[in-house]
Amino acid sequence: MKLYDSLTGEKREFVPHDDTVKMYVCGITPYSASHVGHAMCSVYFDTLRRYLEYSGYEVKHVQNFTDIDDKIIDAAAGQGTSPVMLVEELVEQYLIDMATLNVQPAHLYPRVTDEIPQIVEMIEGLIEKGFAYESEGDVYYRVTSFPTYGKLSHRTLEGMMAGARIEPNAQKDHAMDFTLWKKSKVGEPSWGSPWGEGRPGWHIECSAMAVHYLGPHLDIHGGGQDLVFPHHENEIAQTEAYTGQEPFAQHWVHNGLLQMDQDKMSKSLGNLVTVRDALEKFGPDAIRLFFLNSHYHSPLAYSEESIRGQQRAADRLRAALVEPGSDGTGEGLDPEPYRERFVAAMEDDLNTPQALASVFSLARDINRGREEGKALSAAQECLREITGVLGLRLEPEDSGSGQPANAFVELLAEVRQELRANKQFALADNIRNRLQELGVSLEDTPEGSKWRFTSN
Length: 456
Prior knowledge:
Blueprint: E1 2-5, E2 10-13, E3 20-25, H1 36-54, E4 58-63, H2 70-79, H3 83-100, H4 116-128, E5 132-135, E6 138-141, H5 157-162, E7 178-183, E8 198-200, H6 202-214, E9 218-224, H7 228-243, E10 249-255, E11 258-260, E12 263-264, H8 275-282, H9 284-292, E13 300-301, H10 304-320, E14 330-332, H11 336-347, H12 352-371, E15 374-375, H13 377-389, H14 406-421, H15 425-437, E16 440-445, E17 448-453
Parallel strand pairs: 3-4, 3-9, 9-10, 11-13, 14-15
Antiparallel strand pairs: 1-2, 5-6, 6-7, 7-8, 11-12, 16-17
Helix pairs in contact: 2-3, 4-6, 6-7, 9-10, 10-12, 11-12, 12-13, 14-15
C-alpha cells in the first residue's frame, strides 16, 4: 500500500514501525455541536483504519478530545454552565453521532485535563534540553533551537513572519515562539506546575498524549489540512526535540476540507451543518458515499443535491443485496475481478472514488445477473465485504421506525414550499400539520424549509 506523506510531498510505501499500526488523529474541541466537516475527517480515517484491518494489520487508534480551551471557557460562560458540563454533553453527542455514521470508536479517547502530569513532564524536559523557556509564568518553545522547524509546512521562519500578523510580545525570545504553558487568568480552570498555576498550550497537548499512549514513533498522524501549520508543525518540533528521535510520524496524512460558500466549514466562521441534522435528513450511508466519492486529499463542497444523489446510489447497492435470485441455477458471477480492482484502488493512497467504481460495477452486474438467472451468492457476499470496508451498512432505511422515507419527506417539503410561494397557505399548513403527526418537524428559514425527525 502507498500513502501520501505531507512531510515528503510524495506517495510512499506504507511500512509500519512494528507489528501494530499506531495511528493518532487529532480530535475535536467540544465547545459546540460537531459539524459535517468533522464527520468527513472521521469517515476518511475510519475508512483508512478499516482497510488496514481488512489487509491484516492490527491498528491502535488514538483520538484526543481537547477539553479545555478559550472557546470552551467562553461558550460555557455564555450558556451559564461549567466547562466540564458543556464538554460532557458535547462529547456524548459527538460519540453518538459517530456511531450513527458507523465510525468505529477509537481504542482510546484521552482528554487534556486527564493528561496534565504527562504534559508538564514533557515541558520540563524541553526546558532542560534548552528547547523551551519560562517567562513570567508562561512557557514558550524556542523555534530557533530546532533547525528543521518548518519542514512539514515547507516554510521558513522568514516566510512565516512575512505573511503573519504577530502581536509584539516582549516575553518571547522570537516572535514565532509558541506557548507550551499559559499562566492562568482569574476565574479560569487551572492546574499547578513548576511555573505556577496555569494550563497547557494547544500544541503540547497532542504531543504528550501521542507519546504517552503510542510511543515516540507513530505510523500515521492524521488530521485536516488546516492543522498542518501551526499545530502539526509544532508537534514535530516539540516531540522530536523531547524524544531525540525522528521521525515522529512515518506518514503525515491530511484530508482536504469541507467547504461551504467558498470557505471551509467551521464553527468559528458559523457556516456549518451539524452532523446530527445531516444524519436525520439523509442517513449515514448517503453521507459516507458523499465523502468517499471524493479523494480524501481533495477539498469538497457541501451539497444537499449531491447527497440526495448518494441516497439513490445507496438504494442501488441495497437492491443488489436482496435475496431473491441469489440462488439462481445458471452460471455464477465471479466477484474476484471486482475485488481486485477495489483492492488496487485502496492500495493507491486510499483512492475511494476508484474503489467505489468497482463497487457499483459489481452491484450493476448483480442486478443484471438476477434477470439472467445467474448464481449470485458469492458476488453478493463480496459486495457486502467490500462495502463493509467502506463502512456502509446498507440496511433498509427507516425499517420499523414508522418514519417516512427521507426522499418522500424531502418531496413533501418541496411541494409545501411551492404552495407557500403560490400563497396556498391552507394546503401548505395542512402538509406541515400531517408531517408533524408523522414525527417530522418543519422549520421555515430564509433559505427554505428545513426538516428533521422528532419523537412521536
